[in-house]
Write a structure and sequence with these properties.
There is one protein chain. The protein is an all-alpha fold and 428 residues long. It has one domain. Helix content is 68%, strand content 0%.
Length: 428
């Protein structure tokens, strides 16, 4: 799809009415609280692992959105301008995730075996004591989320300020934060997944684990962004603001990260299998026991082959009826992947189906809280960067100036009052 090609025709069907879903976040929070509290009362350790699973799942979407915002500025992308604003809001949910991490910090002695191990008798822990000790565990939480909060706040702040007058200074500042932020992103994501997920089995070695988590996170985020884009276009905020290449490029990137994730996961497995060192192979040996063998097969075929073969078709990336099942499948596969990493520590015999209700309760609670905060952010600002200099290009009007396309007005709270395409731009 060529950037300068004509914009697609406006959607003919009526606007999608989302009023019936308005209370969904509250319902998720209510159901999640009941199930999570019940689970904590029945088995606090099981609750800790279920909460960690849900936390790492939604953390993937937040850090993946931050990555998408950063690379948008690093590559001066034009196609991603209309979807950048909601990605900024999702990334800015990371401060909320810092608060949702607190149950993990409070139950660390129940979740992480190294928390109560004796470094004098545990050789692996003794060698890694500089990293895996109680003070460092909480210091890293503060450092990682502190950097994420600072970075996401400034990227979103300058983006919103750009809505006022489209000043070049805003674009320059966002690029500067992205230039330094990409290095901070790589370091903090690696530290986060090492401390909160990999350290469940502190004896294990894997230098590819940070990239592995990153690949799965961006994969999940691309599918989520595709779904949100469809909803926002059909419900009004992005109506007549998109070109087909937003969907096409999101689908293409989803295909690319499907392959990238498979490459990283296979490389990690192959290197560990080839070296055959006991302190590395035990991680996979444990996950070949009981029903975990079948879960591993689901990840191999479901996480790679199914979406890979489906997304090879160009037309599939542009059809909502085909992509909606793919989005749901991606969510299911990433959840399975996170469970494959976390749950065998507590249940080496196989996937604990009897505790699925607790897993879903924690997912509902965290997901409901994040959805509620996201909707608050989204309703307080323009649905897209209306003064971005590349907006006209993203919409398929490369010969127009952004002011001819925005057609809306800003009030004192930066709210967007008229989301329709200006008549002059349509006539063009």
């Amino acid at each position: 799809m060529i950037m300068g090609s004509p914009a697609k025709q406006p959607i003919a069907e009526p606007l999608l009415d989302l009023s019936r879903w308005r209370m969904l976040p509250n319902l998720l929070i209510g159901a999640g609280v009941v199930l999570a509290v019940t689970g904590a009362a029945v088995n606090v350790r099981e609750f800790g692992y279920s909460w960690l699973l849900a936390f790492m799942f939604f953390l993937s979407i937040c850090v993946g959105s931050l990555f998408m915002v950063i690379i948008h500025h690093l590559f001066d992308a034009g196609w991603s301008v209309p979807i950048r604003r909601f990605l900024e809001h999702i990334a800015f949910l990371l401060p909320v995730m810092a608060l949702l991490w607190l149950p993990i910090g409070l139950l660390a002695n129940q979740i992480y075996p190294w928390f109560t191990a004796d470094p004098h008798t545990d050789h692996a822990l003794h060698n890694k004591l500089v990293l895996f000790n109680h003070p460092m565990f909480y210091v890293m939480w503060a450092v990682v989320f502190g950097i994420w909060t600072w970075l996401t706040y400034n990227l979103r702040k300058w983006s919103i300020l750009q809505d006022r007058d489209g000043a070049a200074r805003c674009t320059i500042m966002m690029r500067r934060y992205a230039a330094g932020g990409i290095f901070l992103f790589a370091i903090t994501v690696t530290l986060g997944c090492f401390y909160w997920m990999k350290s469940l089995e502190h004896q294990w070695f894997s230098t590819m684990y940070g990239v592995y988590y990153f690949a799965g996170s961006v994969w999940l985020t691309l599918a989520t962004a595709y779904g949100i884009t469809m909803v926002l276009e059909r419900s009004g905020p992005l109506r007549d603001r998109l070109h087909e290449h937003q969907y096409y490029f999101l689908g293409t990137l989803l295909l690319a990260f499907t392959v990238f994730y498979a490459y990283i996961h296979f490389s990690q497995y192959f290197l560990i299998w080839n070296a055959a060192l006991p302190e590395e192979t035990f991680w996979y040996v444990k996950r070949e026991n009981g029903s975990w063998w079948y879960v591993g097969m689901v990840i191999i075929f479901g996480h790679f082959f199914v979406p890979f073969l489906f997304l090879l078709r160009i037309d599939a990336k542009l059809k909502a009826t085909l992509m909606v099942p793919v989005i749901a499948w991606v969510w299911l596969m990433h959840y399975t992947d996170m469970a494959f990493n976390i749950k065998p520590v507590l249940h080496p015999e196989g996937f604990p189906f009897r505790w699925v209700w607790l897993d879903l309760g924690c997912m509902a609670l965290i997901g409901g809280v994040l959805a509620k905060v996201f909707l608050k952010y989204f309703s307080a600002h323009a649905p897209l960067p209306i003064k971005d200099p590349r907006l006209h290009e993203a919409m398929g009007y490369p010969h127009l100036h952004a002011s001819q396309i925005s057609g809306g007005e800003l009030d004192e709270t930066d709210g967007y009052r008229d989301g329709s395409l200006s008549q002059s731009a349509k006539n063009k």
